[in-house]
Amino acid sequence: MATVDLTSIAKSFGPTKVLGGVDLSIADGEFLTLVGPSGCGKSTLIRIIAGLEAQDSGGVAIGGASVDHLRAHERRVAMVFQSYALYPHMTVGANIGLPLTMSRMTLRQRLPLLRLLSRQRREILRGIEADVGAVAAQLQLEHLLDRRPAQLSGGQRQRVALGRAMVRSPDVFLMDEPLSNLDAKLRVHMRTELAELHKRLGATFIYVTHDQIEAMTMSDRVAMMDAGDVLQLGTPSELYERPASIKVAQFIGSPAINLLPATLAGSGRIELFGRPLSLAVNGTAGASITLGIRAEALSLAQGEPGQGGRAWFSARLRRKENLGSEYILHFDLAGRDAPGVTTRATAATAATVNETAEVALTFDETACHVFDVGGERLEPRNGGAVSSVVPLRA
Amino acid sequence: MTMTAIPAFGTPPRSRRRLWIEQITGASFALPALALLILTILLPLAVLLYLSLTNYEFGAISADWVGLANFSKALADPIIRRSVINTLIYVAIVVPGGVFGALLIAILVHGRRRTRSLYEVIYFLPVTSTLIAMATVWQFLLHPALGPVNAMLKWLGFGEIAFLSEPSTALATLAVIGIWQLLGFNMILFLAGLSAIPRDLYEASEIDGCSNGIDRFLTITWPLLGPTTMFVIVTTMITAFKIFDTVAVMTRGGPMGRTEVLLYNIYLEGFQYFHTGYAAALSFIFLAFILVFSVAQTFTLDRKVHY
């Protein structure tokens, strides 16, 4: 069990900057997810922690001690690869047991023919077999130990890769998009299994994914990365409810957040489509800003729009998506220079709208996110909750 | 293929017609290959078998049926026995040298980044050259008085060695030239095999504790090159069995019959002494050797190469 500390890790491949000085502290036993679009540097970062890639500058410490001078196998980390990287010529048992074979046997004991000379070999082998058996039992792999990877299903291969990582009882588990080769149903199942495994082992997990749902559902904390920098670090709900920048807001959440162009009137009041809101932020009058509204904060107005002082704008239905439990409604903003918006609705509400007529959409101003021209979050002056979250990159 | 799964009973006539068209199409696709196979391999083999059972001589108008006399003569012939042994010795040197040498070179070349293609070309050049021409060059290089190899040996303080006319070294020298000729091609095969090994596996093995090159080679490279190695061993062995051109150009079976090999004796019997029937019988023995060795190798190695 160990903490992982990264201090200003930078890495470039030739002229391409991949990581621009990343600082991260991961607590003992924490499940931290690195999430971001492809090419954001998350995989490179995890490979630097593993020791497969050397950083240009900065340092990695595991358990408080620097590991920069240690080779991958000396760092007490285990890694699960996206492709699982199982050894195709070995049985499941040999795959899981390989880390133990390498650490417990000398080269002479592993060599063909020469190994016959060793007396302790049989004893060591029995020890490895017992440990492999114990891990296999935890992952329900006992009946597959003699199979080869090619004879296994995707989910079983995934579990063998996990077993190979677990068998050494490492301090840190590194996972590089381990679920992205599974089909959708199995992925949902393995999410639960991984989270339970983390709870049971109590080890530190660092998990890389481009899937924000995996990040939201499994992690203690999420580090959202883009272009080699950590944009925001926080719990899943912090990232969802208080995104530090427009990029975080866009990446986290499904359906994606609605972004509407707005302007600042005098005294920081926000004007949306020419209509003033009660929401205000600090800023110069006339500045353009972006208003972010989650789909669940936006709803069809009941009765007269603007009733009770609620903000609203008109839109025309483009498409309904039936998810079974609810509908996702896609609207066009008729005649306005803005992309469409989406909202969640019950089946009953969805039945009341159609493509022929414009409807009024109303929203809760306290649930709005305001971003400046540079995409950074602006805190509401009144109404909205006061926040202590400061964008990391500021 | 899927069409054959449809039961013939009760199928509408249109679909039965389609099935028939499909079968015709399939057969006509296979026809050119089949025709070539018959014309270039099966038919000559049948003629060879027939000739080997007669005392036909090249140019003769008729021949007598002699049954298995040619074969019993071959088995009793001390020259043939010697040439079989020489061929086996040659194979025993060329196969390990040509396979493991090529594997070593391939691993070294695979590790180069910028100079890789340069080394590939250098090692592949002997494959593209004509062995007969190269044999002449080798003859000059190894010449006791004029050749640079002996000049170097003398400079290093050793006595001169008549590589090709000394009975104890002639066959080994030919084997070294055979290896030199084969290395480039085998190296390309091994390079292809090496490139097919996923990088992930090496990284996983690094985390799992394979810290040095020997561990990585034994855990990943060697087992995963299994199918390539099997192919290289079988093709190298067949090529080595067919040793002929260097013998014909450089030693003519000498000194003292030390480089007489099977194919060279077949050539002598067939095209110098015109004993076509006898040469046909020897060719059959030669084919049997290659077949037996290839099958045995494929089966024993195949059992160890599995995934």
From TrEMBL, chain A:
GO molecular function terms attached to this record: ABC-type transporter activity; ATP binding; ATP hydrolysis activity
PROSITE patterns recorded: ABC_TRANSPORTER_1 (PS00211), ABC_TRANSPORTER_2 (PS50893)
Keywords of the record: ATP-binding, Cell membrane, Membrane, Nucleotide-binding, Translocase, Transport
A GO cellular component annotation in the UniProt record: ATP-binding cassette (ABC) transporter complex, substrate-binding subunit-containing
SMART domains per record: AAA
Predominant subcellular localization, coarse grouping: membrane
Keyword Translocase assigned: yes
Positions of the ABC transporter domain: 4-252
Gene3D superfamilies referenced in this protein's UniProt entry, alphabetically: 2.40.50.100, Nucleic acid-binding proteins (2.40.50.140), P-loop containing nucleotide triphosphate hydrolases (3.40.50.300)
Coiled coil: none
InterPro entries found in the cross-reference section: AAA+_ATPase (IPR003593), ABC_transporter-like_ATP-bd (IPR003439), ABC_transporter-like_CS (IPR017871), ABC_transpr_MalK/UgpC-like (IPR047641), Mo/tungstate-bd_C_term_dom (IPR008995), NA-bd_OB-fold (IPR012340), P-loop_NTPase (IPR027417), Transp-assoc_OB_typ2 (IPR013611)
Compartments reported by the entry: Cell inner membrane
Source taxon at top rank: Bacteria
Membrane topology, from the record: Peripheral membrane protein
Keyword Membrane: yes
Family note: Belongs to the ABC transporter superfamily.
Protein name per the record: Carbohydrate ABC transporter ATP-binding protein, CUT1 family
Organism this protein belongs to: Bosea lathyri
From TrEMBL, chain B:
Membrane-related topology note: Multi-pass membrane protein
Key word Membrane present: yes
Main subcellular location of this protein, as a coarse class: membrane
ABC transmembrane type-1 domain mapped to chain residues: 84-297
Parts of the chain that traverse the membrane: 24-51, 88-109, 121-141, 170-197, 217-241, 278-301
One Gene Ontology term from the biological process aspect of the record: transmembrane transport
Family label: Belongs to the binding-protein-dependent transport system permease family.
Name by which UniProt lists this protein: Carbohydrate ABC transporter membrane protein 1, CUT1 family
Organism name: Bosea lathyri
Lineage: Bacteria, Pseudomonadati, Pseudomonadota, Alphaproteobacteria, Hyphomicrobiales
